[in-house]
Recover the amino acids of this structure.
């Protein structure tokens, strides 16, 4: 079957691999129909992704169709269209036992730690499939990305009426913005790209935008909050410079949530941390319950995925486009691969 293999940074190869085996008793064989391209994939392509080895079959944002199920599977049947929860956890470690399978001690993420969905068919645990008879395959492939934002906003405990800032207007930042708005917060978006800032203002309806390339971010935040500063700041940049600077931005008693990931050491002033009694949180992946919740919100029209997909390619064409998708001037918000 056709498969894309990232053999090394910058080398994505269109090749063939063996068909998957028949699904086990608790598994499902699925036809991959849509693959969202996310920051993790682009960082891996550029050789900047932590927890990553080559060669690797990328692809963890998947819209799939069930082809066959194992003997013990009763929740799915052939023909169902599903989003895939790509986080394969052990179920028995302390994190899993405490309801945090997203940070399982032996977590394996499809397309990151183990081979993912840049291929025509794949076998997955049936309990990692989330079906919808109403969502399109494009929408199903976006559920995982939205889950990252939903989990981050949940981690921060955002309440209606808060002012929150989101640093980085890439797909993960957009997901955080959407769920912060869903929670009733006022949202300030920060990026260095004028087109992305225009996008979040006109298409996502954020309350204010700040260009970090030209503006003093702290002063702009003070001006937008009558000097009080945002009560929560989400950093979705993956930039160590941004993450270090972010400690200066939350209000006293506020929260700083790192959604983006860097290979570098993050540092901060301990007196400043203590003076404002900041809460610093990491947010990793999403929880199982986020998936049906997001599907329900999209089905109800409360989350609009229409603006997200800006670029599209067939799987055989993806290696030609992948390098351009890594470049900001291409204007990619979300690229979608069709299988």
């Amino acid at each position: 079957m056709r498969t894309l293999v990232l053999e090394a940074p910058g080398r994505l190869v269109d090749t063939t691999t063996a068909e998957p085996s028949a699904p086990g008793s608790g598994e499902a064989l699925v036809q991959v129909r849509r693959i969202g391209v996310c920051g993790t994939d682009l960082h891996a392509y550029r050789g900047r992704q932590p927890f990553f080895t080559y060669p690797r079959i990328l692809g963890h944002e998947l819209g799939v169709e069930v082809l066959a199920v194992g003997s013990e599977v009763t929740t799915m049947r052939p023909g169902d269209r599903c989003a895939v929860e790509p986080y394969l956890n052990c179920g028995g470690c302390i994190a899993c036992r405490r309801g945090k399978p997203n940070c399982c001690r032996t977590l394996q993420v499809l397309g990151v730690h183990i081979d993912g969905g840049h291929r025509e068919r794949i076998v997955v645990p049936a309990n990692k499939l989330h079906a919808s008879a109403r969502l399109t395959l494009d929408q199903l492939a976006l559920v995982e990305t939205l889950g990252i934002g939903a989990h981050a906003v949940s981690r921060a405990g955002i309440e209606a009426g808060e002012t929150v800032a989101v640093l980085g207007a890439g797909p993960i930042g957009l997901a955080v913005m959407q769920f912060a708005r869903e929670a009733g917060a006022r949202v300030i978006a920060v990026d260095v790209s004028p087109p992305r800032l225009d996008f979040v203002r006109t298409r996502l309806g954020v309350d204010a935008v700040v260009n970090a390339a030209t503006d003093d971010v702290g002063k702009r935040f003070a001006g937008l909050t009558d000097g009080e500063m945002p009560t929560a700041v989400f950093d979705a940049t993956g930039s160590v410079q941004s993450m270090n600077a972010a400690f200066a931005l939350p209000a006293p008693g506020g929260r700083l949530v790192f959604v983006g990931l860097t290979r570098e050491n993050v540092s901060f002033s301990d007196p400043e941390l203590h003076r404002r009694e900041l809460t610093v949180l990491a947010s990793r992946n999403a929880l199982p319950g986020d998936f049906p919740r997001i599907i329900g919100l999209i089905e109800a029209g409360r989350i609009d995925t229409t603006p997200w997909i800006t670029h599209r390619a067939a799987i055989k064409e993806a290696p030609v486009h992948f390098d351009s998708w890594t470049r900001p001037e291409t204007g990619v918000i979300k690229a979608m691969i069709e299988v």
